[in-house]
Amino acid sequence: MGDGSKPGSITIEDVATSAGVSRQTVSRVINRRPNVKDSVRARVQQAIDDLGYVPNLSARRMGGARSYLILAVNDRQRTLENWRAGRGNDWVDQMLYGGMTECERHGYHLVFELIDTDTAKAEGELAAIIAALRPDGVILTPPHCDNAGLTGLLERHRIACARVGHQSGEKCVDVFMDEEGAAKRATSHLIDLGHRRIAFVAGAPNYGNSARRIAGFRLALADAGLPGDAGNVGNGDFQFDPAAAVIDEMLTSPSPPTAIIADNDEMAFAALHVASKRGLRVPQDLSIISFEDTPGVRFSVPPLTAIRQPTAAMIAKACEQLIATSTGKEGTGRFELPFDLIERASTARRQA
Amino acid sequence: MGDGSKPGSITIEDVATSAGVSRQTVSRVINRRPNVKDSVRARVQQAIDDLGYVPNLSARRMGGARSYLILAVNDRQRTLENWRAGRGNDWVDQMLYGGMTECERHGYHLVFELIDTDTAKAEGELAAIIAALRPDGVILTPPHCDNAGLTGLLERHRIACARVGHQSGEKCVDVFMDEEGAAKRATSHLIDLGHRRIAFVAGAPNYGNSARRIAGFRLALADAGLPGDAGNVGNGDFQFDPAAAVIDEMLTSPSPPTAIIADNDEMAFAALHVASKRGLRVPQDLSIISFEDTPGVRFSVPPLTAIRQPTAAMIAKACEQLIATSTGKEGTGRFELPFDLIERASTARRQA
DNA sequence: ATCAGAATTGTGAACGTTCACAACAAAAAA
DNA sequence: TTTTTTGTTGTGAACGTTCACAATTCTGAT
Fold first, then answer.
1. Selection from A129, A70, A123, A124 nearest residue B107 by Cα
2. Is the CB of A57 under 7 A from strand D?
3. Mind listing the pLDDT tens digit for each residue in A305-336?
């Protein structure tokens, strides 16, 4: 603030002149490099503060340094479909929460982009985005986290990669939650409440996490010594209508389930809907647990008991690790984050 | 694909060599400048496609050109509070929807950031972000859209600015919806259904849009020739508990409202909650309209009739205008976007 | 006092693009 | 044909930073 002749163009050179040192010394101070005398460091810092200097990211990047950008990539079709249908996209919201707050802590910026479901297209699109932006790290979410073409591309370009929802830990930082354990916990919770016939409405059968959850579901039943026919698995395709159909069918059977676990909120709402249509009270006649916990479940009637995925925390962890990698840390590892079972009013002890 | 010695480093020079022209000619082709022979343009384009060249954004920016970045700024306290409370942030989700899709259409990228509610802090934070990122345009949302310090800062730095939720159209591109008209429409809808005692539960009284909506509410009542006491305005502070309290009080009065308009979804849920507690059926005994339409209202029981804000469309329009400005268009103007009244099951004809 | 070694500071080049302007070619006017 | 105008292409410099390395100053041992 002062002459105001050239707004917003305070450069490292201005700081250097003002502090009576060279460019490079200022650069060292900015980047917290060693080998700067304390007195000089203080003088430079003072000049930086006085002038309100902030390094230009583009120039930094040009100089061969980091870009201070983390790229978060989502699936275009799935994301747009959610938005178009007016369904909202809690996943995106939570990603931003975790990603942005973590990036901000380290002076980084988060850029969010969509790429195609189709493998070949996705690779081209990602290539274009990284060529333009040159991010220091990329976060891949389902289903792209399982796409070896994308991780290969990033490896070739030497860009650090974090996968959210992938568990191998090879070549990337992998962040995930214990899907099997979560399903097990949800199931055990129902068993503890006295339920002996429980149904699991799965999402996409070929989706890794659905499979893991089904495994956890079966494991919990077995651990409790229940017979094989205590658990019934249906497929609801993550959507309302197919889920409603399969749930309706389940409840028609001669020995219907007294509790249902749904693979996501939308299918849990379908269960609620079907129950109401059939005159079943929730939770007295039917207990319901969901596997997602978007904000809407707090306001449903009754509010749903749900497994809460640590979406924001997973993205934050991914950012943290990518940023650490860009400052030298090795870019691989497995990070399992804890989930929560949030008890609300849609589950109750089985009525005699 | 090929030698693979230097991955991801195809520069404009490589394209120039491959096409047998100079840097500058390639630059002209990339930027769709005139004065390039068609045959040459085609040859260069071919080389670009063959090599998979994408211009490096940082270098472009350094060369004095655009940054191809749009910055969307939200209020930190309000946004974080929503996230922390597990309430989700549909506004953020919708912003991303509108902003990202529009930016993508023009080869732009969207960066989303939070700045402090406090005016002085906000100014410092925004200054730092624009110094680092040098975006081509900045989108200011409530309450920052009304902060003259921020628009002044952007003006000094010659960065185009779009305000969402501000209506003056001076010095910035302003994008907004007809708040007064929306309230009027909601009110008329209830009047048409035969309601004669209607309550409006406002959010923050000092928040410009609440005031506009109250005005619309009153106008509709007056237009219908209803007496002054037909409309009752309460203050629910945009939150569940205060809203529930004020609604409960309203329903206790000797001539209680038969319909309620809530300034946001959370307060509409409060209305639902209070009605249920008092044994009032919705919509038979009480009609409810909300003013926000987040995804949860589709799944409430009953689903809520609501005014739908065109959040995504407003952000998209803001991006469109900012991008147009960065290519020469004047950076001011007023853009009013249409809202929707979505009829669901929470409103019905007044019972005799 | 002298010198080796370490710590500190500075200098020129580089990053990939665009800008300003110069050079050249082609078309139109004289 | 010659000149003018217009259209097309190329060249050197600039943007703001970091890198690699050179130069200088300090430290502590001999």
1. A129
2. no
3. 999 999 999 999 999 999 999 887 787 889 99
